[in-house]
Specification:
Largest sheet: 3 strands, antiparallel
Strand content: 15-25%
Oligomer: single chain
Number of domains: 1
Order of helices and strands: EEHEEEH
CATH topology: Beta-lactamase
Helix content: 25-40%
Distance between the termini: 34 Å
CATH superfamily: DD-peptidase/beta-lactamase superfamily
Strand order of the largest sheet: 3-4-5
Radius of gyration: 16 Å
Number of helices: 2
CATH class: Alpha Beta
Number of strands: 5
CATH architecture: 3-Layer(aba) Sandwich
């Protein structure tokens, strides 16, 4: 697929005004064992690794954190995630320039915030007000 920022445009009452056409650029030829290995690694990043702050309760999420050094000695932080991991319907990438901290610390909570609200809106999860903001717990 071609990367895209906008999938569809909706009215305030959730009517689809315009849906962008998906375009497949190239399909990777990966066997199922390789795909499951990658999914497992991304799942562990969220469950027990540096991406714990990207976790969304009740949703199978896979992620990857990163930190990039720059000449100003203020590291850039990044985080990518996809959900639901068995059949991803959304992918999020967050880059925080000059964050001075790691991707799991700064970028993952931003992605978690967006993903949690998207998942609730799509009906994938039910979130109580108390759970909102329980990032990385």
């Amino acid at each position: 697929m071609f990367p895209g920022v906008i999938n569809k445009i909706e009215s305030p009452n959730n009517e689809i005004i315009f849906r962008f056409k998906e375009r497949v650029r190239e399909n990777l030829k990966l066997d199922s064992r390789t795909i499951e290995f990658i999914r497992g690694a991304m799942r562990r990043v969220i469950e027990v690794g540096t991406g714990r702050r990207g976790r969304v309760k009740g949703l199978d999420v896979g992620g990857k954190t990163g930190t990039a050094q720059n000449p100003q000695n203020m590291d850039d932080a990044w985080f990518i995630c996809a959900a639901p991991l068995s059949n991803p319907r959304i992918a999020i990438s967050v880059i925080v320039d000059h964050a001075g901290q790691h991707g799991g610390t700064v970028a993952a909570p931003i992605a978690q915030y967006v993903l949690q609200r998207y998942a609730e809106r799509e009906g994938w999860i039910n979130v109580t007000q108390k759970e909102i903001g329980d990032v990385g717990k």
